[in-house]
Amino acid sequence: MSAHSLTLLLLCAPVSVGAQEPDPARGELEAALRAYFGAEEADGPALQAAVRAAQGREELLEEVLRSKSFVASAGPLALHGRIDERYRFRAHEAGESDTDNDALFFGPGSEAGLQPLVVYVPDSTSTAPSVDELEKEVRAGRFVLLVPDEERDNQWKPTHHEHRRHAGPLRTLLLEHRIDPERVYFVGSGRGGHAAWTVGLLYAQRFAGIAPCNGGPACEGSYALSGGVFLENARSLVVHAVYNTSFDHGLEGCRYAARKFEEWGYRFTGIEEPAMRTMDLVEAMEKVADVTRDSHPRAIVKRFNHLDAGEHFWLRALERAPGEWDPAAKITLRGKLPTDPLQQREKLWEHVQGLCARLEGTLTAGRITIQAQGVGKLRVYFDPELVPYGKKVSVTINGKPEPPVVPKRDVATLLQHVHASGDTARLYGAFHDYRVR
User: Fold this and answer.
1) Residue 270 lies in a domain
2) Going by C-beta distance under 8 Å and a sequence separation of 6 or more, which residues neighbour residue 371?
């Protein structure tokens, strides 16, 4: 073959258009973020290494966080484990045996990109029968965390411990897997229906939608241990509920919620049925799978008792004032008690609302207006999607203006918020703390 023919052959050889050299800057940043998000401490050497890797690469940092390319590649998951004492999902290690009531975490491979997560609580004292159901969800491209009935009595106990068992694992799962933070849902039947209402309303900023079946909201004062679970918090959620009319297994609570949601214009559908039944994942996801969370709302409201439920998007309570209410304490109502049961409930809930805390915030044209009740100190995160960094932002709390703030992006602040929340859609690079006067 002549040299001329060889040259033509080389020129005409096919070129792999998609093949690209690895970007060392991206690889360094992804490795630093992976190490930092795996570290127990939010402040320390791992944070400093991540900040150095992101220095001068802020746009790359945002892209890596939003795409979650820092998550290590993995195939489909079918993990059995437990919810540990720190409220994290822990897969069984070598030598540990599976049981019929394990916590389960199933999911698609990381190559599928960002996929939704369903927190699932079936009406059962055993999780083993749900394995086939979870495998179907994996084939549909969804992650599922199944939280077991710890005491195996098929009763929902709205304690602080139970709240945290269901919400606590989300932070770590969001950081370790390619879960879309805008598509996290809660589905449950019976005991799980109660759980979906309670956890969904208390930690509403975590979820896009909830689908409870034959369980009711343990609303303001309904249970002595709940400390209040407030319908008001559902403003950011889509709720699809199914509840039976054969006996009150949350029926009156659901009917009350339906009335309030219609009054407030919240996104709610409720189906009343005569029979007690369960809702599987397929049915539930047909109703909420297309729902996406708005992670940058301009108007937010959150009512709560325990401080760990006092965060809602760009507002966070740092102190309760005068302190958290003891829901086991005796409630004394002033005045004559109405004879109508619904009016009695309204009067009781009005009293409980005064004992709990409430944050309401609106943001328009660089102005933040906040109403705070039962909060001694609060934090305002400046969402770059809503607030212009480098320009003055005015903040008013309970009608009293605070000195203007000029938010400036700080990479360490941004990373610490992601580390604490697991939320890679809310990239808050600045905050300011305020004492409520």
Assistant:
1) yes
2) 358, 359, 360, 361, 397, 398
